[in-house]
Amino acid sequence: MSKGWLKAILEAPEVAGRVEVVGLVDLDPAVAQARADEFGLGGAVIGTDLDAMLAKVKPDLLFDVVVPVARHDVVATGLKHGCHVLSEKPMATSLAAGQDLIEKAKTAGRVHAVVQNRRFIAGVRRIRRLIESGALGELTALHCDFFIGAHFGGFREQMDNVLLLDMAIHTLDAARFMAGKVPLAVYCLENNPRGSWYSHGAAANAIFEFSDDVVFTYRGSWAAEGANTSWESAWRFVGTKGTLLWDGEDSFEAKVVAGDSGFLRDLKSIDVPELADAAQTHGHASVLAEFLAAIDENRQPETAGNDNIKSLAMVFAAIESAKTKQRVTIAV
């Protein structure tokens, strides 16, 4: 992940020239040095102790690209040193830890944002605008399928609740954003399918209740071979006037009712308008550009922790429901 972030910091047109990398910290200094060499960061200090590094180089920004269990201490250390912090997801391993980081950022007067790069995918933003336009009528339901046979190796294959905790946060955050609704409750069934190469929770099925009686269903698996969906899932959005299908990539099909008689009503196709500001839909680079703009403008970015915790709450409520086999309410 550090490679992807350094590439965005140093090469993305929205960001290039705005950030100077002054230090790299890793438990293994050879790893940090190799990354510095790869990106020509000869002037960057290499270290293994984050607290000592921040005291030495006194940076404005900290990019947190650690495994989830280390996140709270890394973010808290950065905020203590007066850094604005941009974290990988999930923002915390519990809601209590997430709330603590929100309070620490508020006390420090610094921005803590989370990498929800799917927010900036063109399709996600186009759908949000179509729903807001009322072209489909009032939204009543959204449904998504996420099925990928992903062989990562490494820590993910040993994680508990791996799909819900490590990947579903992207999909659930996108659903909340596109729908423009508040998550209220969930019932979830989680399992680890036969043949799974993960130790726990590679698949999940969840029914979320959103505000305004909107229903969101999620079906997903990271151990499903043979017919991969997009990484953004395959989606169906149902409104009172019609339905939109999105394959998670470049295919949109939207149809609305065009008649008032017949067992099945006549339909007509409608367009999903392109974005005038498509330059702001470059994933990681757009998250970073929004993070920097928020700091410059003294405001909270779109993916600030105090907003992202609402998506994290969806994840933890789904995990709790799977464990208890009960409907769980969502309150943040």
From TrEMBL:
A Pfam match: GFO_IDH_MocA_C3
Domain GFO/IDH/MocA-like oxidoreductase: start-end pairs: 124-244
TM annotation in the entry: none
Tree of life domain: Bacteria
Residues covered by the Gfo/Idh/MocA-like oxidoreductase N-terminal domain: 18-113
Record's protein name: Gfo/Idh/MocA family oxidoreductase
Native organism: Devosia neptuniae
